[in-house]
Amino acid sequence: MAFKDLREYISELEQEGELLRIKEEVDWNLEVSAIIRRSYDLQAPAPLFENIKGYPKGFKILGAPVSSSASKGRFYARLAISLGLPPDTDVATIIEELAKAKHVKPSKPKLVKTGPCKENIQIGREVNLFKLPVPYIHPGDGGRYIGTWHTVVTRDPDTGWTNWGMYRLMVHDETSMGGPIALSQHIGMHYYEKYEARNQPMPFAVVTGTEPLIPLVSCFAVPPGTDEADIVGAMRGEPVEVVKCETVDLEVPVTSEIVIEGMVLPHQRKEEGPFGEYTGYITSARKQTPIFNVTAITHRNDPILPVICTGAPVEDHLVWSIALAADILNNLRSHGLPVKKVFIPPHSALHIVVISTEISSPNIAQLIADVVWANKSGACIPKVIVIEDDIDATNMDEVLWVFCTRNHPDRGIHKIPNPSAFHHWTFLSPKEKKSLTTTNVLFDCTWPKDWPKEFVPRKATLASLWPEDIQEKVLARWESYGYSLK
Asked: Do you find a cis peptide bond into 266, omega within 30 degrees of 0?
């Protein structure tokens, strides 16, 4: 199903037992984030804070909107629901569905005159970011972060290519925000290569509190020139309705809870950070980053601000790992490689990818790794594990087993020196941080192609070793033995 807005999604979460309304007063200063963090630890329902200290009744914060669930067999329930899938959908199916979505015919947004996001409009002197319940998330953060589960809209001034991306944003004061913009990111291509190069301010719109597909797709790795809005429309089965901003020449989803408009100023910087990042550590040093100068804020009545509490692996890893895995799967298949599954374990903090394959050639693992690292999604993953397709790549117990028993500590480990490094990686040395280069590694956990067939060890598992008639007999009589069917 396609949700028309965040409120419909919240209703569905509540119906599925994946939401908890918290009516007790909570403080935006660390208490909200501590509750969200604790909900991650317990895989508890998403907290909807309805009484925020110092803010009018009606203002709400939604925490952990797509985090994992403790419900049996529904670890990915919220993510599945957000994609319109049954809550008990397994991760391999979710990845396949996202991989298919990349091949659906794009659907352009539909421009409408007005909508819910225009119910309240503040322009110029009326603008005050602190009128929104922006949380202070981690002890040690450089400030209050309004951008943790949102979409930043920018547009190429020459081609009209509109980018929807997710980039962290810290509130500086009532009318300005800041955050890092990397040249390699699509927003960086717009800002540095076009606007700042011409000494022009770059229009932006920060959209938060939308239907769940929009922030999800904002995390996708798509080619430059691709409008994420078109992908969302294709996945929804109908165009996203958008409305013009008040002070900049951009369009935003009409049912957004909150829209923040303005200009990113050229050649002006202000200190931002640190922030508890996706690696699970507060490592991003305070540094000079571009300034997002706010010219207007519009929002719905009783607006809802979604918040994720980044840090030790939680929901940002859950979402990004699925999105990146789907993109890598698509790319490997487009190269004709016999790949069965691609999985990025959420708790790996996006540092490792597991790929299962048929053994079609002696160097299949190296071929796979080369394609992974040549792809934008794979370029930010320094470690690749390649396993055979008799192992479920999404079952980390099985993956750990074959890593320990099939990976040779010499010939099975291949180091690739001096690839580009991602600045958030905590294992980088000071020298590597400066040069932004490191070492990638391939763990080949496949049996060598030149081994005699009788020399290859056989798996001693029920499904692979016992005769089918014995398996069927045991499974049929399982309950009569006294065991539960679960």
From this structure: no
